[in-house]
Every structure is written in C-alpha cells, then in structure tokens.
Amino acid sequence: MTARRLATGGRINRSLSFTVQFDGRPYRAHPGDTLASALLANGQQIVGRSFKYHRPRGLVAAGVEETNALVHLREGDRHEPNAQATMVEVFDGLTSTSQNVWPSLQFDVGAINGLLSRFFGAGFYYKTFIGPFSGTKFWMFCEGFIRRAAGMGRATTFPDPDHYEKINAFCDVLIVGAGPAGIAAALAAGRRGDNVILVEQDRDLGGSLLSEPFGSTSDGWLTQALAELDDLPNVRVLTRTTAFGAYDCEVFGLVERVQDHVLAPDEGKPRQRYWVVRTKRAVLATGAIERPMVFAGNDVPGVMLISAVRSYLNRYAVLAGERIVVATNNDSAYTAAIELANSGAKVTICDLRREIPAHLGANAKNAGIDLRPGQAVLKVVGGKSVKAAYLVPVTPEGKAMGRRVRISCDLVAASGGWVPTLHLWSQRFGKPHYDKELDTFLPSVEKGAFTCVGSLVGSPSLRDSLLQGHKAGGGTGKEPALFGHADFWGRNLLPVAVITRADGSTPGKAFVDFQHDVKLADIDQAHLEGYVSVEHLKRYTTSGMAADQGKTSNLNALARMAELRGLTIPNVGTTTFRPPYTPVAIGAIVGHDHGLHLRPTRLSTIHDWHKENGAEMMDAGVWLRPWYYPVNGESLNEAYVREAAHVREHAGIVDVSTLGKIAVQGPDAAEFLNRVYVNGFKTLPVGRLRYGIMLREDGFVFDDGATARIGENEFFMSTTTANAAKVLAWAEHLLQTAWRDLKVHVTSVTDQWAAIAIAGPKSGRVLMDITGADLSREALPNNHFTLVTIDDVPCRLHRMSFSGELAYELYVPAKRGREIWEALIAIGVPYNLKPYGLEAMGALRIEKGHIAGSEIEGRTTMKDLGLEGFASSKKPFVGSVLRKRSLLEDPLRPCLVGLEIMGDAGARAGSLLYALNAPTKGHGEGWVSATTYSPALKKNIALALLSRGPQRFGETIQVVDFVGNQSWQAKVVSHHFFDPEGHRQNG
Amino acid sequence: MAKKHPMPIRGMTSDGQPVTISEVELGSLTQLAGWDNFDKLAGGILRKKSLSLPQDCRFSFRRGLTTVWRIAPDRVLVRSDTAMSFEAVEPLVALELSHSRVCVRLEGPGAASLLSRVIAIDLSEVGFPVGTFAQTAIHHVSVLVDRFGGDEFDVLIPTTFGGSVSGFLVEHLNRAR
C-alpha cells in the first residue's frame, strides 16, 4: 500500500500542521485529521497486531467500526488502551503506541502463534483445560501465560487525573445520528418548536455527506442546514457524543467526549460527560456500516472497506493506494472506484455479479477502470502489505469456478453490502427482521416511540433519507431538496460476501471477525462440533465478542452458518445487542461518585467538636462516629480501656445521635406499637419509656430500642443505628398495606434530635447541675423521662442505660447539639466528665451483656438471645406465629453466653466454638459475636452464641479463628458479666 | 468523609454558567399529618394562618416568607420564618421538624444546570416552573427541591447529611472560590 496525501481536497485545515507520534515516530498531521488518516497519509501500513495470532493489521475502516487500529493513547496517568485510531482526533502533542506487540509492531514475537493456529481455533478456551494434560498441573502452569496473553491493551495503574460528570436531560425528540436524515429530522422538529437533542459521535455534523468530495452540492445544503440548526434555540446539538444505550421508557445513555480531542482537559472541563436523556420520542438515524468480504488474506494490511477508502480520499485527502482492486457485490462501490481512478489510481473492479447496471459499467469504463464482472478476489497475497490479489470467476454462490489470475496491487477495497447500525433499536426491542433483497437485518421503521430513518432502514437514496428524516421530525417547513448519486447498494445486490474455492475452503486464512481473530474455518469447526445456534456460535468462537461487538463480523458469521446448515439467514437467527454500543470509560459512569463522595457521609451536629478534640473517627454505615479520644499518643486499646474504666469510676459522655428516632403519632399509635413490638406498649404511661424488641415476620429478631410515650397519642421510638431506615420503611409498609385501619403516622426524627448519653456514677450530678432538675431516683427512676431546659434549650432527658451504669440519654434539638454538648463538658469538669467513643461504649455494653448489632444479625431469635421473657402471650405481634417454628425452638440452637478468654490475648469476633477435645472441623457449635478487654473484670471477655449455651456455664471450650489462624480456650459464663443485678444502673 | 466547604461558594458549571451555593436559615418547619378528611381539616387549620392547602404534591403554596408543601396526600410541611403554633390541631397531628433539615440555596443562571447533574428531573422552566417542588434524592439522600425563582432553588437536606450533600454539589462546580 502506497498511501499518500493529495495536494488538494479534503476537509482538513492545511494551513496548520503539527506532529503526532505513533510508536515513537513523528507523523505530520492537520487539524481535521484522525490519528488513522494521519498514519495513512504518512504511509504507515501496519497499525496493530491481531489478538490471537499477532498478524500484522492495517486500517479497515474510517469510523467507529474499525476493528484493527486499536492503540494506546497518551502516556502516564492519562494513558488509555484500545482507542480506535479512526475515532481519535489529532492534536498537537498526541502520542500513541501500538498494543498487543512485543518487542515491536514490525517484529512481534507473538506472531509465532500463527504457526500454532490449529491449536487456537474455535473452542480454544473450552478445550484448554481438558485433553491429554487433564489431571496434571500443566494447565495451571500455563494459566499465567494465557492470562498474560489475554485481553487487549494495557491499562494504567495510576489514578485518573481528569474528572468526569453526569448530567440528566429531557427532550421531546432525541435524534441519534446527524447524517442527512438526522439533520432533516432535527430541522423539522426544531422548526415546530420541539425540544430537540441531536447527537453525533463525530466532531462534525453531516454523516455520509462528509465523505462526499469537498465542494459537492451536498456541502451547500449542509452549510445551510447547519446554519438553520444553529439558529434554533430549542435544538441542542451534541457532537463527539455517542448514544451507547437505549433503555426502557425512552431513556438513553450518551457519552460526550468533551475534552478527548485535546492534550489535557481545560481547567474546569470534564474529560467526558455521561448524559442520561429521557425523551418523549426518538429518531434513529444511525446509518449503516459496510460489510467486509471474506476471502483468503482479507486481513492483510491494505485490505479495506471501500467506504473507508472513499472517506480517506474525500474527507482527509488521502489516496490509500495507487493500484487498487475493488471487490464488490453491489452498486455502492462504483462511485468510490471512479473517484479513486479520477484521483490517479489504477483501479480494477471485480464484481461478483455478471450483470452490472449499464450506467455503472459505462461510467467505470469512462474513468479508465478495468471492470471484471462475475469475478471476485479469491486470495490476497502479502504479509505486511498487499502485494497482489488473485481474481477468479465465481458462481453466483461465491465459489471459484475458473482459472485464477494474479493482479499486482497495493490496495484491495471491498464491499460485501451494508449492515444497518441497529444496535440501539435492538437493545430496546430485541431481534430485527431479515430483508432478503438487502441481505441484511432491518429494524421496524416505526415501533413504540422510535422512528428509524435513512440507511438504517435501507433507504434507497439520499433524497429518500432526507424525506424520511423530515417526516420523522414532524414534517415542518420546506422539504429538503438534495439529490445524491443513484448507486444504492441494495438495488442489485448479490447476497454473497464469502468467496471460497469450489469445495468451500479458502486458500489461506479468511477472517470473519478481525478483532478476535475468528476465521471462516472457526465457524466451520463450530458447526462440526454442534455449536450451530447463533448464541452458541458466538460464545464458542468468540465472534462478535470483542470491543467492536461484531459491527463488521456478525452478518458474515451468520451467513456462513446458514450456508453450512442449509438454512436461510433468518432461520439461523441473529443475536440481540446489549449496551454499550461502543466502550464507555468507567470514569464517565462514575462521574463525581468517587473518593470522598463514593457514598454520602452522615455527621452528627457535634462532629466538629469531636474532630477538634482529637477524636479518631470510624465508619458506622454512612455515619462517621468518634471511635476513641487518644490522650498523649495512646493506641486504640489504651484509649478505650481508659475511657471505659473512667465511665465506671466517674462519668463519661458519648455522642449517640446516630440512634434511629421515629415519631409515632396518631390515635392508634399505642396499638401500632403493640403490634410491632413483642412486648406491650398500650399501657405504657405518659412520661415512661420501655425497652422493646421487634421481630421479622419469620420470627427472627429484627431490632430493639427504647420507646417513650410523649403524649397520649404520641411516642418517640428509638432504633439501632443500623436499622433506623429499615424500621421506618417497614413501619410505613405495614401502615400502608396490612394495617390501613390504624390511624398512625411514622416520621423519622433522627435528624431533628441530637442524642447525648451521659453515663457513670457521677452522671446524675452533672445533669442536675446543668438542668437544675431533681433527678433523684424517686423523681426520675430508670426508664422514665423528663423535660428539661439547658441554656434555654428545651431538651428531653431519658433515664436509661446501655453501659450498666447510672446513665441518661439527653435529646437535644439537633442544631443546638454542639452547644449543649459543650455546656455539659464545661459543667462536668468538677465531676471529671470525659468523652468516650464507640470502642469504649462497646466494651461497656459487652461487660453488661447487652445485645447490639453483632447479636441482632438476622439469624438469632429472642430465645437465642435470652430475651424470650419479653414476649407477651396476651397479644399477637409481628413474628409471634413463626417464632414458634420447631426449628427455632430446637434446644440445640446456639444461645447467648459470655466467654472468659484464658490467657492474655482476646479472641476475635467471628471465631468458631468447639468443645474442648472436639476436632476443630466444620462450623463448630457456635461463634463469637463481640469481644473486648474488660477493664472492670480485668480480663478478656466475649459474647458468643453457643449451642445449649446456658447449660454449659463453667465448661471450658475452644475458640478458633480460622482467618487469623489463632485459637484460645475460654470458660463459658453468663453474658451478664458486670453488675448482673443492675444495682448501678437502677441506683 | 466529605470535604467541608465554607459557604457561600461561587463557581461555574462545566458549561460556564455561574452559580452560588449558600446555606440559608431554614426557619421553622412543621409537619401536619392526618387521616380522614385531611383536605378539609388541614385546609381549615391552614386558613386560620392565612395559608392554603396545595392540591397536589408538585406545586407549593407560598405567602410571604411562608411556604406550604404537600409532601404526601395526607401530610404537609409548613416552612415559615418564625415558629408557627399548631397546638390544637386534633384530629390532625403536628410535628416540629425545624432541626431536621438544613436549607442550601442555589442561585444564578447555572442553578438548574447544576441541579440537573445530580437529580433526574426536568428542570426546564416548562417542566419545573417557579413554585414547583419535588421530593427526590441527591447522591442517595432524600431531599426536597423547591424552585422559588427562575434561577433560584432551595434544597432541604436532612441535617446530618447537610455537609455531605453540599460538598457533593460543590464538587460539580468549577472554579469555586
């Protein structure tokens, strides 16, 4: 191939030029070029190596269907693999390298695979791990090499320096494709005032018109149309944007390459933008992709689609070859062939058809073209470039039937017909229908809110495409008047694109899927082995499964299978398409949802105080909570032990704002609570609070917490932090479905109230000092609340204990939370009031034997947790029936116990429990749910669920942590380690 | 954890439209809820405060500095600059929620554009005219978005998510200063 840039023509800006790099070599390019056109203009024939056999490959196409020219783009942290050179706009400083090669593109060691191709055929992946080496470690040895060889391109491991964004858009009409039909649709829809979004993956609007010679009559129409579009404020045009997905309810996913065409994004600009568009209707004007022909050597660099050769000629002023063989089965190749001849190339056309329209024949001869009807390319000769082609007379079925003739050439341009780009339509509606005359699959012109126009539906002329677009857009305004050449590909098409010898074989490798190196012989192999359904064929051969998703290969693979099975193509069927149409950067999907914003973060209104006072924070669901407050460089263990011991001796203050809080209001509020809690709430007096347990319908414990009766018809429910949202949703669900008779409203007030727990023997005095209220045992017994005022802020003070100490929970209007916290800290100085964190809170509750999330984890029943006494026998409640299932009553079920760990080290949560001398196999007899060092007991303790637990007090068991490969011995005791009688909390 | 941004923040969307994000006083927020005859009962109570019950969950009622949002068929939220007394509302129930939300205000020609990056709602002046509100989610957090001017939106965010959601909005701005 001796490609060169022509002195005139093209749609490039010759007044500017710059250098781009490919594999370290400089290439001259102009604005308007793609990386592919720049490489071609500079005579670069090989642009990549094939996936399996590492065969040298050149450009096949000029657009999104390109299968071979996948390159690495940019360097360092902006390095990107698998960029299609045909879609990469050049810019000053562009660097690119070939991929899938070693040590170089010209000399690639991997090409040895071509010699072993018989071992890499269809089903290679499926057959690899069976056969003569089955049962040995040979394939495991090979795995590393296979994995290294698999995949395309090399991704960077650096963080992406660019940012991406997501955006939602709504419109009346979404038009995908800004070729002539799409532009006509946009004009018509825009004129009638519709809110229009016109999407084009190219940088320029015009579609196929951009491949017309510069200065053609279509340029005038295009200029005028674009000017009118520009004047329509209701038409939004998105260029460099690919509609990659069509989803239910007319939702489309688009990716806009906002700044991919520059060296680095401008400040403040996203590199790419992911659009989610919701439209009332869609016009698909996505055009068609030319179908390659399948013959021996059809992958040699220099074998291209004729439409691509025409694009390079007319759009980029690059003549792709000097001695060109055009292979075709339809009319559409003639215009390009004539233009090539007029540009100085020596052109031979071999047309499978014996009867060629007279005007085409005459035009070709007038252009000096050697026209050979009834002939086809049987084989292309060449390694790294086309040297010659063997032409041969063929039957109407594409079988060679005469003497082959060698023609010296440097470019073979082929057209096996066209394949409408119906991916989006198929994503939405499934299988298209087969059109015998056009030998291709077509979408429905109208279906649901979709209208398909132009080449997508096999429009026979430019004029028809324009009128279809105009009509689909609403038919407003003057009909577009533009006439193109009359070489419609479908009018006289011979539906044959595979050329073989008379026996069906090819004299060399003939490729169906270039990107995954799937040969015609692989289709034959799949057929032989029974993989004849299209879905099996695809997966067995991997045809159509590469990054290009079979844009150029699907129909040829189907046609071959149909021929082998003696069926028609529609009887063989077709696969459906799934998003994305083209690969989408993960960054575009992610947008800003990463790093600090991977998920939302929830902060109590006292959070800043914790940070300012040195708290180490920890994640608790979406919350950030103070974990511990290190003093003088304390470690976690040192700090929490100090904090917990301090609470037992003096007083501690902890932020418990994360507790779920739900207002339960209405005349039936008490009845509602009576049904959701296992224990009774109907008789709870105003001013009291009660600990309650909820079950799921299946009888397992769902959640627990204390609920206060604020008024006759108003309760304040608290839940665990983890289950707050679940409990609210569940309550709302019950009220809206099962219990519509109850007049109750539930509303989250978690954010309305900051919650502060003050615990320890001196806690009451701190609170009496700050509130001035009488908090004596007589005035405020345990499980009572009172309204207090602190610094003029009305608060509610609950007397209740999670730590086992005399303790209170103070509910404060959230926005005053920090202010009240600071007031407590200040007034607590004489009482040595100190903050404590989540770790110490956990230690205190384990000492006390209170359950929490690690015990209420969805597998435990009230009986398991020793809470069965709470269940009322006088009323039904959620879960009351199913909790009595025999399985849940099994006496062997693990039940809550305490463990005293022997030795100096604590056990790990999740460790399994075994009898002392039992083998440590299987799931054991239970597990450790929570563990801590107890400053009160001065030993390591744990809560655990152990089979027949309460009957085994005093027994020594094994505690095994299989993850950390550690084991301990522990004594089984009651889980009420500390103050089991409750003297301290009730005192 | 989200980065803390001092408000107000002025910046631009990536398409160059200016926006100011600021936290404004929410004032008083009260929920009124009921059951049977809610329209009649709530309408009567609101009338006593010279307010009206919105007929749907899309358009707010606004009078001076007071706004009424119907957030469910049987619930309304009343926002006012000073506390409103809803003591004697039986058989309805009132709930004080002033501390449960923070209010973030988005102003400027890019306000709708910025919001369109975080919520899937048609924010064109036709699709979401002034006086419209929506209960939706920003970054998985339930919010109430109220358009009170052509380029002015208030976003009511659960208090404990305020910093995170504000930060997420700011993240979508360029050249913030």
Walk me through the structure:
The complex is a heterodimer of chains A (987) and B (177). Chain A is built from 24 helices and 50 strands. By secondary structure, chain A is an alpha+beta fold. Chain B has 177 residues and is α+β, with helices and mostly antiparallel strands. Chain B has helices at residues 38-48, 111-116, 162-171; strands at residues 9-12, 18-24, 28-33, 61-63, 66-72, 75-80, 93-96, 101-107, 133-138, 141-149, 152-158. A six-stranded antiparallel sheet of chain B has the order 1-2-8-11-10-9. In chain B, strands 4-5-6-3-7 form a five-stranded antiparallel sheet, with no helix packed on it. Chains A and B meet through strand 9, strand 14 and strand 39 of A and strand 7 and helix 3 of B.
How would you sum up this structure in a few lines?
The complex is a heterodimer of chains A (987) and B (177). Chain A has 987 residues and is of the alpha+beta class. Chain A is elongated and about 115 Å long.
